[in-house]
């Protein structure tokens, strides 16, 4: 009997196959690169191993991307909600948003005003305002909840600066930034690294989880994001098991995927809610 997370994963794939994963006129899945035989082979293998019919709608790249983000947000929200006994609190999963709205980055509103007023500073600092595809945040906690079992804090100055107390700050605390890449085709996909570095460098306080969810079938392109450490926690594939099965008949593809997985740089989407709970 499958577990609830596996059920949600199947629901996620069902939605992906309905709204995102479509067949092009040449029969190629729209997450595969028609000019690459390996990409087409693996893309078709993923579809076969998922075992669900896909449509033939022609989706603009941006539309597919937005649908992928929405489906991923809903899967993470629902699966993470099942882990509330491991990670209690009031959580919110939202699409888009500006990091300046969250506790660790509130100061960037003042910085932006100064930078916009001085052209020479814009040249030096560039664009450091990140707009994540999906934001996971935690709401500050009221003292009544903190003191639910016994009095832990009051107005005597104890814990008077922590943003977890609603009495100190009403801004949501960013817990994770999730970047979604349905395909990896160009250097634009590398902006996930730049965004990750900006989130690390510009924060005041706790660093949020910084992850990327991909639908790309070609291992070498996944590796272009997954290799290295420091800017991205980990890359997650929407159907890693199905991709690894599709790659099992090609030694180089299979070896690269195993290297990424064993090197803790690539995981399945079902791992992500648990990693967010750590």
Description:
The structure is a single chain. The protein has a 6-stranded mixed beta sheet, with helices on both faces. The radius of gyration is 21 Å and the shape is globular. The chain has helices spanning 4-19, 37-50, 61-81, 108-117, 119-125, 143-146, 191-201, 219-226, 240-246, 251-262, 272-276; strands at 91-95, 134-138, 173-181, 209-214, 234-237, 266-268. The protein is of the alpha/beta class and 278 residues long. The longest helix is centred in the N-terminal third of the chain and has 21 residues, at 61-81. The chain is built from 11 helices and 6 strands.
Radius of gyration: 21 Å
The total strand number stands at 6
User: Helix content range of the residues, please?
Assistant: 40-55%
> What is the first-to-last residue Cα distance?
26 Å
Oligomer class: single chain
Q: Average pLDDT value?
A: 92
Strand order of the largest sheet: 1-2-3-4-5-6
- What structural class do you assign from the helix and strand content? alpha/beta
Order of helices and strands: HHHEHHEHEHEHEHHEH
Keywords:
about 280 residues, 11 helices, alpha/beta
In short:
The protein is an alpha/beta fold and 278 residues long.
SSE arrangement:
Layout: H1 4-19, H2 37-50, H3 61-81, E1 91-95, H4 108-117, H5 119-125, E2 134-138, H6 143-146, E3 173-181, H7 191-201, E4 209-214, H8 219-226, E5 234-237, H9 240-246, H10 251-262, E6 266-268, H11 272-276
Parallel strand pairs: 3-4, 4-5, 5-6
Antiparallel strand pairs: 1-2, 2-3
